[in-house]
C-alpha cells in the first residue's frame, strides 16, 4: 500500500498541467493521495476537479473570507479503489470527517472527544480555513493536514497557529487513548531541525513551533515517528519546498516542511512485543519524489531572470511530493464509501427531489400536453388584412417537423417554407394602407397569396419561452444585412397581396426621402462609404497613437536599463523588485542579484547584492 502527500499549490493548475485529474492521480501510482493547498472554494468543486474513475475523493474548503483567504487553502484526499460499495479494500475509508474538531456542519456539529475544554468559536475558527480531512481506514486513522504559514511579525496569525496545533494535539491524544493507530501527512509548514533547512542559523531550533514539533517525536518522549528521518537519519539537503520567486530550486536551496508521521502498535497478533510498532513492522520505505520538482537539469537556463527583467516561468508546484509504502496490511470487513465522499456533493450528483414533487411535475406536464393537442387540432385563427375580407388558415396544417417541443407550430420552420404574416395592429381602411401596421416579410422569392376562403397558418406569438432552431440565427442575420431594403418595404404593402384602391400610390412619400429625385439605396450607399472613410481615418489615428506610445515605452525601458546597477559578485545587471511586506518600506523599489538563490559557498548562485533604488523624498 502506498500513500502520497503533495502540496499542489492549486489543484486546478496541476490538473491543467497533467491534462486531466485522472492522469495526475495515476502518475503517483498510489492507493491514497493527499493534496494540500487546493485553492478551491466549495462552489468550484466540479466533476473535472473532484471525480476520477477508480477514485473516491474527500474535500475540505475554506469557509471564511478573513484577510482575503477565500479559496486560499483547502485539502483533498483521493483513495484508489475497485469499488465504492461493499468493498474490503483498506484504501476505501469506513468513515470520513471534514476538519478535526467536529463542529463543521458536514461532521455532525458535535465537538470531538477530548476537545470539550475549548470554546466553540475557537474550534470553528480552526476548521473554517479548510485545513484538514480525516479518513478512517479501519487499521489506522489518516490526517491530511495543511498547517498555517505565518510571518514572524503577524501576532494574530502566530496565535492562530499555536491554537491550531494545540487543538490538533488534543485530538491525537484522544484517539491514542482509544488504541487507534494514526498517520499524519501533509504540509505542516514547520522544519523541525537545522538539517531540514538550507539557511538554518544558530537560533533556528529555538522557534516555538519547531520545539513543539520535536516534542511530539519519539526521541523527545512523544508518540510519533518522523517516518522520513527514521528511514534517512543523516540525509542532508533533503528538501520538499523552495521559494517560488528566487529560483532556489536550481541549487536545491529549500526546506523540508512536508511530513509523514505515524504512531501506534503493529498489526501483528502479538503486537505487544518489544520494538514492534507501526513503523518498524509495516513501513517499508519513505522518500521524496524529486521528479515532480519544477526545475529539471538541462531544461532551465542558469539564470532565472533574463537581462530584460522577465522571469522564466517554471511549471508545477513549489513543493515536491513525499510517499511512504506499507506492507502486510490485511483487508478489512466489507463497507461502502462514507457520506462525505465527493460523489454525494449537490454540485456533483444534483439536488435530491421528493417523490411527490416528481409526480406533480409529471402530472402537470401531461395535462399541458393534452391541452395543447386539443387546442392545436380545433383552434383556427382569423387575421385581418388591409381589406374588407379576412383570411384563415388552421394550425393543424403543421407537420411533425414543424412542431416545437411544446406542441406548437414552429414559426421558424414556417418562415423557411414561405412568407410569414405579422400583424401589429388593426388596418382601418384602404385609404390608410401606406401607414398600415400590417407587415408581410418574405423568407424566399415566394409570397403568400391568400384567396377567399383559404386557410393560412397563423404565426404563433414569440415569447421568451419559445425554442429557437439553428436556422433562426442565420435568418436573423440575413434580415440584418438587408436593412436597406426593409426600410422601404416596411412602409409599403405588396400590391399582389393587397387589392389596389384609388387612394393607393406606389410612390414613396416625399417626407421619407432626402430628395424627390434621389434613390434611397444610393443615399444609404453613400452614407456607408462615408462611415468607412471615418473608420479608416480613426484606425490610422489609433495606429499612430500606438506607435507613439510604443516608442515612448521603449525609451523608458532604455532609461531603466541604463540605470540598473551591476551586482558586485558577477558584474551582471541586477533585477528590480518591490517591497510587498507591510511596513515603512512598503512599495519601495530595490535591486538584487539576478541569479538564482543558493548557498553562499557556490559562486554560481546569487551573490547577495542589494541596493535601494533612488527615490525623491515626498512631502507629507
UniProtKB/TrEMBL annotation:
Residue positions binding Mg(2+): 7, 37, 187, 189, 318-319
EC number: 3.1.-.-
Sites marked Transition state stabilizer: 189
Site (Interaction with DNA substrate): 319
Residue(s) at site: Important for catalytic activity: 258
UniProt xrefs under Gene3D superfamilies: Endonuclease/exonuclease/phosphatase
Cross-referenced PROSITE patterns: AP_NUCLEASE_F1_4 (PS51435), ZF_GRF (PS51999)
Entry note: cofactor: Probably binds two magnesium or manganese ions per subunit.
PANTHER family from the UniProt entry: AP ENDONUCLEASE, DNA-(APURINIC OR APYRIMIDINIC SITE) ENDONUCLEASE 2
Protein name: DNA-(apurinic or apyrimidinic site) endonuclease
Organism name: Acer negundo (Box elder)
Phylogenetic lineage: Eukaryota, Viridiplantae, Streptophyta, Embryophyta, Tracheophyta
